[in-house]
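FORM 12-B: Structure-to-Sequence Request
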């Protein structure tokens, strides 16, 4: 019996990337020594470098290389009225379904993503994909299934469900069976009506859902009873809208112009998961670009192209990124148009960034709630109006995960598997590693340390002598280091070193004094 996944997926790839992140110090589970805090993650030495490089590349292309965008860093905690004006108090909620068996709350529009990633379905898929017969499924139900998903019909009542599925087996033999129906039938076989199974326990989920607000609350003031209730911002955008008048007064920009900000945001997500893809604390890179109302359609299209180029220039494989336009009924209440930048993650296409035409919604709302004039004065036409806003809004953590996954490669080198992160040169956490071939020869170590010290002034370079050269190469490949520079016995005589390229593994011998220029030129 074979099933058709909703996507062609590679769950092993995600496991490998996650393991590499922990092993090499990119990303660790948050608060691990206390048993971890659900879905919180800490960026380690290489992770923080990669993250900084992504933010730097974004800031450079959107702020430094343009004349019309100003940087900002607004406060995380804003006046509570901000969130009334923005609509977050009223509308920032997700629809949820509550499982009547295990009590889990599941975002109703993400149930199938959750099922796809749930341990029981993964395990079930593995059982089924190997062309196993029904006895395997029965054994799975009686053993592993009991631990993973006790409320699946297949687990609670294996014989009845199995005999019912045997008919299906005939019906669908050699035919691609629809994944949702298949999972549904397993969850609810007794009535024969496919139901949606709970991703946690496998029980059939109810059809009704409610909604919950996603803003994280906190209190300003030492005594909770008298303190003011405030929110941790769920997006950086509002910090830019409320400063619109300050920018006009201090920088006197002409339309079109924009504001850019990178910072932490918080959402009480119902079902965080997929590693760092959906977390409750995350970082955003947002631009609010103000333009004349009549230009907004054109400016919106230009931003879609600008953002496309940014991802491709930084090396994302074109086949792994797509730009999906929202249909009318998918648009948020404030948006006139929206394009999602989606990446083909191991679990399927998912959003990296949203580019929205927000029209004049935000400035009008804040003008109304604050009583301040947030219009723009056109000195030529002598008139005031609310500019329209185009907003490219991306997540740093999702972006990092996409770059990591995209760069992950395994290749066979003789009888070894080489794991290499083919990160773009701008993003690679380490540009050069200087490795002494013999760590007990003072002259060699001395030259290597001196060289790494010189390189450090120009780029992120490291010195490493903690293993043999084979292991050192392997470690540097795994973190995407662009060049490994080896100092050996011959260096003492000819003052030359071997420079090895990460991607081609080709080695060239060059004079010590040319190393920095050689690497800088390649960068
Ligand atoms: P989703 O539909 O995945 O919940 P969204 O459409 O609500 O995302 P936006 O409000 O458009 O997201 O936020 C802009 C960007 O911020 C997203 O494209 C994403 O990269 C990032 N982002 C949003 N929520 C999270 C989160 N919980 N964890 C990590 N990144 C997030």
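FORM 12-B RESPONSE
SEQUENCE OUT:
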């Amino acid at each position: 019996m074979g099933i058709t996944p909703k996507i062609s997926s590679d769950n092993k790839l995600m496991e490998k990337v996650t393991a590499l992140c922990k092993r090499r110090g990119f990303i660790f589970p948050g608060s691990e020594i206390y048993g971890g805090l659900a879905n919180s993650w800490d960026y380690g030495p290489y992770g923080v470098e990669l993250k900084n490089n992504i933010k730097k590349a974004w800031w450079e292309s959107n702020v430094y290389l343009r004349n019309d965008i100003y940087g900002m860093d607004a406060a995380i905690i804003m006046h509570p009225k901000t969130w009334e004006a923005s609509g977050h108090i009223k509308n920032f909620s997700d629809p949820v379904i509550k499982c009547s068996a295990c009590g889990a709350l599941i975002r109703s529009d993400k149930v199938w993503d959750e099922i796809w990633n749930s341990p029981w379905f993964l395990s079930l898929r593995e059982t089924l994909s190997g062309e196993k017969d029904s006895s395997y499924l029965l054994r799975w139900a009686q053993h592993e299934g009991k631990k993973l998903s006790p409320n699946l019909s297949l687990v609670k009542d294996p014989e009845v469900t199995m005999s019912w599925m045997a008919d299906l087996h005939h019906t669908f033999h050699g035919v691609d069976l629809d994944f949702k129906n298949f999972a549904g039938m397993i969850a609810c076989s007794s009535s024969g009506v496919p139901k949606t199974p709970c991703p946690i326990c496998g029980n059939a989920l109810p059809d009704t859902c409610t909604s919950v607000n996603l803003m994280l609350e906190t209190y300003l003031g030492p005594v909770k009873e008298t303190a003011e209730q405030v929110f941790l911002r769920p997006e950086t955008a509002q910090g830019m809208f409320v400063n619109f008048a300050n920018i006009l007064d201090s920088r006197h920009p002409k339309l079109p112009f924009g504001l850019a900000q990178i910072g932490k945001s918080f959402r009480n997500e119902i079902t965080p998961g997929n590693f760092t893809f959906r977390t409750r604390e995350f970082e955003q890179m947002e631009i609010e670009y103000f333009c004349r109302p009549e230009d907004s359609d054109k400016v919106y299209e230009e931003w879609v192209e600008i953002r496309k180029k940014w991802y491709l220039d930084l090396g994302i494989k074109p086949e792994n990124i797509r730009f999906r336009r929202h249909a009318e009924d998918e648009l948020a209440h404030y948006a006139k148009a929206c394009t999602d930048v989606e990446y083909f993650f191991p679990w399927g296409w998912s959003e990296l960034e949203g580019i929205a035409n927000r029209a004049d919604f935000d400035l009008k709302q804040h003008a109304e709630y604050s009583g301040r004039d947030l219009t723009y004065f056109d000195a030529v036409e002598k008139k005031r109006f609310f500019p329209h806003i185009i907003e490219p809004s991306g997540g740093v953590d999702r972006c990092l995960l996409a770059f990591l996954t995209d760069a992950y490669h395994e290749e066979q080198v003789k009888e070894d598997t080489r794991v290499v992160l083919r990160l773009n040169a701008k993003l690679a956490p380490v540009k050069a590693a200087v490795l002494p071939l013999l760590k007990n020869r003072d002259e060699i170590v001395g030259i290597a340390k001196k060289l790494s010290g010189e390189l450090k002034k120009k780029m992120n370079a490291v010195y490493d002598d903690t293993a043999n050269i084979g292991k050192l190469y392997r470690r540097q490949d795994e973190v995407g280091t662009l060049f490994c520079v080896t100092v050996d016995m011959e260096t003492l005589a000819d003052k030359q070193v071997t420079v090895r390229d990460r991607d081609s593994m080709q080695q060239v011998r060059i004079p010590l004094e040319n190393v920095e220029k050689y690497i800088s030129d390649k960068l």
